[in-house]
Amino acid sequence: MQVSFTAAEVAAIIQPKAARGFTSETIRGLAALAEATSGELSFLGNAKYKGEVAGTGASIVLLPVDYVGEPKSNQLFLLTENPSVALARICARIELALWPRPEPGIHPSAAVDPGAQVARSATIGPLCVVESGAIISERAHLQAQVFVGRNAVISEDCWLMPGSVVATECSLGKRVRLQPGAIVGADGFGYEFVHGRHEKIPQVGIVVLGDDVEVGANSTLDRARFSRTVVGEGTKIDNLVQIGHNVVIGRHCLLVSQVGISGSTTLEDYVVLGGQVGVGGHIKIGKGTKAGGQAGITTDVSAGSFINGTPAIPYLLERRIAVLQQRLPDLFKRVDSLEEQLREAKMSSS
Amino acid sequence: MQVSFTAAEVAAIIQPKAARGFTSETIRGLAALAEATSGELSFLGNAKYKGEVAGTGASIVLLPVDYVGEPKSNQLFLLTENPSVALARICARIELALWPRPEPGIHPSAAVDPGAQVARSATIGPLCVVESGAIISERAHLQAQVFVGRNAVISEDCWLMPGSVVATECSLGKRVRLQPGAIVGADGFGYEFVHGRHEKIPQVGIVVLGDDVEVGANSTLDRARFSRTVVGEGTKIDNLVQIGHNVVIGRHCLLVSQVGISGSTTLEDYVVLGGQVGVGGHIKIGKGTKAGGQAGITTDVSAGSFINGTPAIPYLLERRIAVLQQRLPDLFKRVDSLEEQLREAKMSSS
Amino acid sequence: MQVSFTAAEVAAIIQPKAARGFTSETIRGLAALAEATSGELSFLGNAKYKGEVAGTGASIVLLPVDYVGEPKSNQLFLLTENPSVALARICARIELALWPRPEPGIHPSAAVDPGAQVARSATIGPLCVVESGAIISERAHLQAQVFVGRNAVISEDCWLMPGSVVATECSLGKRVRLQPGAIVGADGFGYEFVHGRHEKIPQVGIVVLGDDVEVGANSTLDRARFSRTVVGEGTKIDNLVQIGHNVVIGRHCLLVSQVGISGSTTLEDYVVLGGQVGVGGHIKIGKGTKAGGQAGITTDVSAGSFINGTPAIPYLLERRIAVLQQRLPDLFKRVDSLEEQLREAKMSSS
Predict the structure, then answer these.
(1) Rounded CA gap, A182 and C11, in Å?
(2) CATH match of C7-98 with 3.40.1390.10
(3) Is pLDDT above 60 for C1?
């Protein structure tokens, strides 16, 4: 990765509220505070690392406006409302260098059905498959080895990374990103138990992703039994997440890695589920609910809840119980002692 | 998805026990009771939604034979033993339209080794790889970008969806379905610790799937260290499930999403594991065992058990303990109080 | 799988410390003690199965040097320091037959950018994609349908199995194995919440894997926000494991299937995490720590710890608490009884 920014260029990109110090160095890389050396830019994004600012070797440090402290010689502090957002702007410039806009067109090795519609400005990379009736919209980018099934719709500016799959009839909103290996539209897991065998219930619904949805690497989103599995606008899904059939996810949710959501469950807007959370089927999770990692959610959750544990209960209660559980050995001893004392008391009184 | 059924056609497909009412509408879609409108078909598959039947706008509703209630004007109730099975029959018709039988033959973009055997009626879709010695049987369908390794056997009527992998020497029974990204025959996780390093134990066994097995999207089934990892006839595996090396799974089991089964463990027939269940290595789970979501199974389980929790214990006991745990704060207070009372009693008696 | 070893050949491969008995059979397969028959080789790798040696039908049995017992007629016992390691040597021979060294060269169906560097002795299998600037070193093997992104580095003797992905700029040490569907270099999960929306933080760092790392099927390793996500030399990662951005994993660790590690966490050398373990972000796990399956690790862990449970605590304490939890119903009854006795005592004394 080739990076090269002068201090003036960095300032122009992030538009700081204030600056302290000066550096003559050209920025050639980014690094964490503790690891950064001359020629690198760092930032304070998490107050936990505040103590590392004074010792950092970074030539430029992005800091919150209320940071107290002076730069070293040949070091520049740039003060900004949100150093993480400022860093993101730097990273966006680097991103353009890492993944330049691809050339429009269809790679000769791709297998695009003549019955598919591919926009002029779209890019179909090497060894992709696009089946008949599929629509690939303007500036959409199928990077490589991507599969888009019959009648699927890929909207403007989507980016489908290597090995991702959009199965028959499913549709993606604008600017959707599928990370490598993400699968949209596998069959839901539905069987009827008949004469000792699990007979498959055909899964003939679809998956619909709203604008600006992102799906992580190797995550799987199942098509509805019939009707639609839905992910709302702006929702971000991490790697290895499972979304069952007929699930409806609201807007601007965050699902951290390895979350599993069973069929026909609804998440309202702004729900945040920590890593490895499991959610049962046919339940409803209210707006803005947050669940801690590994929680197991088995019943409806009212809006604004903060829950934890299996089965999930209010966070503070769960934390309190977790502490008390570690005192169980002591509690058993106390009850033993109480019983002993009572026995003695009875004996002495009899 | 284009759907079009007259009421008479629906009745012909599902063969109802009885009917109430009449509709002149043509069915153009399926929807849940609460969402269905005129021209749509709905069903009561879960008693939980019984109250929604009276208000549904569906033109046809599939109901259990004991359902009490009358249809509205221009609405048809079809009464059947199992509305879910009836619906499945409708869906099977729609499925044929969504995924019509593919044309036999080998797509010119596929890389099929001359030493592979491909049946006349099989379909090898675009950009598939079939290595030497592999056998692709009659009517088997490798949809797109599928990999079938050396000497692997794909039996009659299998359907391998985009990006699925069947590695060297592994074999699939008849009518097996691999959802997108499913991997059969990755190496088992086996190492010996020698001189401070984990030396790989070559994994030279295979995976054998019985007839009518289904493997979900991005699930992974490891080849045996030697001998065979086995999945019995009719067993259905959901997405993102991990099956370790030398695991033997019986017939007609259900493994819900994100289950993980460690090496050399045996599941007898008809075992059902909920989502995210983890099973330790070298243990045996008896016939018909059911485990709740996120359970952690670390010891042998006798046939017919219903277990839950980590470590997994009988379901009812686990539920009772979960309730008592939430009363721990109160219990600690009660013991505090008992101790206090006893202190007072002693003082007053001394 | 065609296997054929005489007893003399087996002895030559494993170099036993001692032998008992004799067999005239040619070994044509490997099997577990309980299942092995004439013409097969078996071994005692786990003391749990010791009782099965006397009854095995195997023609050759690999046993620990201190094994007491005599072979049957036409049966050979080979005694060795570590029967598992001895078996591994046999398996390594079989492995060569299963996966013979591929022919060097680029398959005509692969899409290799002219700006990529491919070593003479490397093998690029069918339908692989190699982007510009990528380096494929001597004897590296891209099996089939593999993706290697721009400027990525694949070192000597790597083996990338079907459908694996190494994204832009990432690098693999020598002899790294990626099992099918493994993804190195997906975007990290990083967003800033701005005006009610999750704005993506571009992830412009890379992933660096040390020598002899193995990554399991469909596992996902995220590129750093900036700088590097690192996996140290000799670390082995099982299937469906998630490694977040900026994670640093030491040398010779073992991560069992479905482990998830959140961003910016550090694992020192020789850490072992059981299946489905979840690790929070920004924490440090000391050298040689072992965690039981499904543990949830939320705070720093000191070197040499053995932990279990969620939240993870010392193993023995966790086991003790788990036992006490199952006695909670009894404890509640005992406290009920104590309260009752105290009430009675008060009444009688008043």
Answers:
(1) 48
(2) yes
(3) no
Interface chains of chain C (3 or more CB pairs under 8 Å): A, B
Question: Do B342 and C339 lie within an 8 Å CB cutoff?
Answer: no
- H or E element at residue A227: none
* Number of inter-chain CB pairs under 8 A, A vs C: 191
pLDDT per residue as tens digits for the range C23-79: 999 999 898 899 899 999 999 988 889 999 999 999 999 999 999 999 999 999 999
DSSP letters spanning B291-335 = E-TT-EE-S-B-TT-EEETTTTEEHHHHHHHHHHHHTHHHHHHHH
Fold of domain A105-317: UDP N-Acetylglucosamine Acyltransferase; domain 1 (2.160.10)
> DSSP class of residue A103?
P
Q: How far apart are CA A209 and CA A149, in angstroms?
A: 15
Helix (H, G, I), strand (E, B) or coil at B134: coil
C135-140 LR contacts (CB < 8 Å, sep 24+): C139/C104
Model ipTM value: 0.92
B132: nearest Cα among C102, C104, C165? C102
CB C182 within 8 A of CB C164: yes
User: 3-state SS of A33-86?
Assistant: CCCCCCCEEEECCCHHHHHHCCCCCCCEEEEECCCCCCCCCCCEEEEECCHHHH
* Rounded distance between C-alpha atoms, residue B170 and residue A167, angstroms: 26
Report the alpha-carbon angle C33-C36-C40, nearest 5: 120
B15 vs B19: CA distance, rounded Å: 10
Q: Check CB contact under 8 Å for B313 and C293.
A: no
Among C183, C225, C346, pick the best mutation site for testing chain A contact (most A Cβ within 10 A).
Answer: C183
Walking along chain B (350 residues) 10 residues at a time, the average pLDDT comes out as 85 95 93 92 91 95 95 96 90 85 96 98 98 98 98 98 98 98 97 92 95 98 94 98 98 98 98 98 97 98 97 95 94 95 81
Dihedral over alpha carbons C18, C20, C26, C28 (to 10 degrees): -70
Helix axis angle, C315-326 to B315-326, nearest 10°: 100
Tell me the C-alpha distance between A111 and B144, whole Å: 10
For residue C153, give the nearest of C101, C207, C215 by alpha carbon: C207
Residue A348 tokens, joined: 């002495």
Q: Which secondary-structure segment (H or E) carries B238?
A: none
Angle, CA A88 vertex, CA A84 and CA A89 arms, to 5°: 125
For chain C, the structural domain boundaries read: 7-98, 105-317, 322-349
On whether the CB atoms of residues C242 and A181 are closer than 8 A, the answer is no
Rounded to 10 degrees, what is the CA torsion of B242, B247, B253, B254?
-10
Is residue A167 classed as helix, strand or coil in its secondary structure?
A: coil
Kindly state the tokens that stand for C252. Answer: 């010779």
Specify the 3-state DSSP secondary structure of C243. Answer: strand
Q: Give catalytic status of residue B252 as yes or no.
A: no
Q: Report pLDDT for A211.
A: 98
Q: Per-residue pLDDT for A2 more than 70?
A: no
Task: Tell me what percent of chain C is helix, strand and coil, each rounded to the nearest 5.
Answer: 20, 30, 55
B partners (3+ CB pairs within 8 A) are A, C
Q: How does pLDDT run across A55-64, given as a tens digit for each residue?
A: 999 999 999 9
DSSP state of A188: P
Q: Do B321 and C332 touch (CB under 8 A)?
A: no
The first and second tokens of residue B69, run together, are 């209630």
Q: CA C244 to CA A257: how far, in whole Å?
A: 9
